[in-house]
Amino acid sequence: MSQRDHPKISIVIPTFNEEFYIKDTLNAIKNQKCKFNYEVMIIDGKSSDNTVSIVKEFAKRMKYLKLYISPKMGKAFQLNYGVSKANSELILFLDADTLIKPFFLQRIYKKFKKDKNLFACSARFKYYDEKAINFKLGSLRFTLTPYFFINLASHIYYFFKNLFGYPELTGMNLIVRKEIFYKTGGFKNPPNSLGIDKVFTDSLLYLKRKLKRGKIKTLTFLSVLTSGRHLTFNRSMQRLTQYFKKKDLYYELATKNSIKNFK
Known about the structure:
- By secondary structure, this protein is α/β, with parallel strands linked by helices.
- About 40% of the residues lie in helices and about 25% in strands.
- It has a single domain, classed as Alpha-Beta Complex (Spore Coat Polysaccharide Biosynthesis Protein SpsA, Chain A), CATH 3.90.550.10.
């Protein structure tokens, strides 16, 4: 691969039985308007539905799309495995049910190029379920969904966490420099596999304190759409309760600076 063809961003998408969502996600990636090359890696966890065949069809039209079958199941392992295959120094982790806007990659790349001290970031997110009303007010565009109040509350929550220096990055869209990713030790599996994005954020904050430099941000000027299919009160409370009950274990995971070498 020549320097000219070298991708500026590697997009890593873990999948497991995502036949109803992966098409829209890949179409959104395919429609990116940017002035550089990027690559897409689907890391599949041995899906039993049509996910793999759908990705293979897309790969015929998207030469920069590659499909890998993960040696082990589990989101954390699949994400780490994806990084081991990446050719770019900038990694975008994207969920299989998350949609990015046409200029997303261009704006992300410019942000990291401009700020060399930026370690990692996430864009704001809005839940959707394919039912939405789009309208324009002056030069601004708005999208209303049944999750309007949840989206508003989430935006306020992440905004103030970011403002007070305790950002929390979101797993459905997370961008990190590869060098920084490896310094954190990558993704680790907390109990019951809930909250891997929270542990990774804590790892970044720990690294930032250790190095006495770096920035971790929630970007307020960018947003993505993500499915609300897993959004339940019980799941949210389970994750929150689990985190506070096992804070010591979470801290140990976040500060553990080791990662398995993938072949």
